Amino acid sequence: MKLIKKGAAGLLLALGTLCFVAAAYAPFNHSINREERVSEAIACLFFGLPITGAGGWLVWSLHQQGRKEVQQRLQTVFHQLLKLDQGKITVIQFALEAQLTAEVAKQYLDEKAKEFSATFNVSEDGEIYYCFHTGKFFE
């Protein structure tokens, strides 16, 4: 379905662009009279705007769908790691599991730590653990 949406978006944007190019060319087409040039330019704009708008809307919806899928994947990984280590997660552990850079993983975990009032512990080797108080959820 996503491939069909991408193809449709590309086609609509290409057709819209052609309409805009034709609208820009119409005033310079001296093989027809002035009134026909104006009518042609207006017609091309009239058809080009909604076609391009529809293509843009499809691109935007695909972008939003992709962001939603990424957030769902990160949330799934986050929950799996919470269960695995009874609420303790490190940045490197989350980054490796979610296939993120350390910076993005830290940012995500910081947001979750604020959301769930997590605490931080430092291991003997200096590694920082995010401690999410899971209570009886994982016992």
Report on this structure.
- With 139 residues, the protein is mainly α.
- The protein has two domains: 1-69; 85-139, Arc Repressor Mutant, subunit A.
- 71% of the residues lie in helices and 8% in strands.
- The protein contains four helices and three strands, in the order ααβααββ.
- The radius of gyration is 26 Å and the shape is rod-shaped.
- The model has no long low-confidence stretch (mean pLDDT 90).
* Percent of sequence in beta strands: 5-15%
Distance between the termini: 41 Å
Rg from alpha-carbon coordinates:
26 Å
Number of strands: 3
- Count of distinct structural domains: 2
Low-confidence runs: none
Indicate the mean pLDDT: 90
Given helix and strand content, the structural type is mainly alpha
Please describe the biggest sheet, giving its number of strands, its sense, and whether it closes into a barrel.
3 strands, antiparallel
Alpha plus pi helix count: 4
Order of the strands making up the biggest sheet: 1-3-2
Write the layout of secondary structure elements.
Blueprint: H1 2-25, H2 34-84, E1 88-90, H3 91-98, H4 102-116, E2 119-122, E3 128-131
Antiparallel strand pairs: 1-3, 2-3
Helix pairs in contact: 1-2, 2-3, 3-4
Structure, briefly:
The protein is 71% helix and 8% strand.
Tags for this model:
mainly alpha; Arc Repressor Mutant, subunit A; 3-stranded antiparallel beta sheet; rod-shaped; 2 domains; 139 residues; 3 strands
